Amino acid sequence: MTTRKSPGLKPLVQVDSQGSTAGSGADDLAETRIAAVLGLKQFTQRPVRTLLVKGLAGTGKTTIALEILKASGKGKGAYISSRVPKELLEMQIPAMQKTLQNQEFYDIRLEDATTALDFVIQLTGPKKVKTIVFDSWDGLAKELDQKERLRAEKTMMALANNSGAQLVFVSEEPGATTIDYLVDGILELVRVEEQDRAVREFIIHKLRGTKIPQHKYLFTLLEGKFTFFGPYAIPDYSKVGKFVRRPDIDGSYSFGSGALDRLFGGIVPGSTLAVEYDENVPYPALRTIELPPIINFLSMGRSAILLPLPGANDERTNSILTKTLGESVVSDRLRILNVVRTSDLKTTQMQKNVTPNEIHEMVTRETTTLREKSKDQSVLLVKSVSALENLFASDLDSLLEVTSQEIITLAQSHDAHILFLAKDSPIRSRILSMSSSYAKLFVRDGTVLMFGVKPHTGIYVLQHLEDPTSPSLTQMV
Predict the structure, then answer these.
(1) Quick one: average pLDDT of 160-173?
(2) For the residues 409-413, what does the mean pLDDT come to?
(3) Which of these CATH numbers, 3.40.50.300, 3.40.50.10940, 3.30.450.20, 2.60.40.420, describes 237-475?
(4) Which fold has domain 26-229?
(5) 474: helix, coil or strand?
């Protein structure tokens, strides 16, 4: 074990003199993903040697700085703190205790900017520390006049270039300062309001010599860890496997998804869940809410009816359901009633001048037939209001009337009801007022987000991390 010393300064952590790399498996993968998206891969490979991480208090600057430090490898980094002692930092961010213990930590709260600069010179000397985090530089820089500050910052830029070390500066100063123009890269972290809920976002202002395909990303500090989210990725349906059914939850039907069950507590018999989505939500994201309840109902020996969303691919839907349940189950206890009349869809059962009441009667007949095949006479109805609005644009009052009748009828039975409707639906407010539960899906920075309005929930990122037919939901905190 070695200990680094300097006049007036003493490291609070001892490091392995071999400087061996820490982490493997999932940790290595997480570090690689962080580096790839932020452009920090280029940063650790030295085209970008100086990075400014800025933002207001509480936006996550220290956590992301520690993630960068972690990626440098055990014993190859140093954390210089002008704000808080190591013990308090470990208490504030417990998930980063190991990272702080694996790197050198220097408490310089009682030092001035000149002494701090001398210290950086020593750190970039013979030992060749790979990454140095300075949290925060602006706290000390404010003690200098403009010329002294600029000279000190230019000196640190030169130290980084000449030594090969990477310097990460954490700052809470609003607006542009002298260091903004000197560093190779700038990341700004912000908290923004979205649908009356707070989400975290980082903005890449610059990364010299690095292509930036997207300038804004969402991230979360769930469990004290920095996790970013790229644009929504369509799942690989070739990986669909046999479905493992989920039993009822305290008298409620399961959504067929652990993530959805945890969010909403299951589907109460006789209830209606309305799922509102905006025009940017891709159909596969809606499918991952639409299909699990159907699959689980069928796997539990019950029946289901589906009126697909506009743009649905019936062949894809049948393929997924058949892979998960088997052809006999799908053909016996599921009815897909496609109300969209197009030349390439053969599944439509609509007459040319069909009315909303005739649609309602058709659903009622199918429900009666499927009820006899259900093990407990319960049926799940999953219906696209959007598709029906397209069909009955000139008679929305009748559509609203029959929808209201269905909701009332289902409330008196043990059936379950899920409605999908667009954000700009002309009958949206009436549908939502009649629904027992209400969820919203929308897109920000290419990422699909979901939250519950009834009941009120936090905001979650929707992905497909395990099963392509079921959502993975990560909370934004």
Answers:
(1) 89
(2) 85
(3) 3.40.50.300
(4) Rossmann fold (3.40.50)
(5) strand
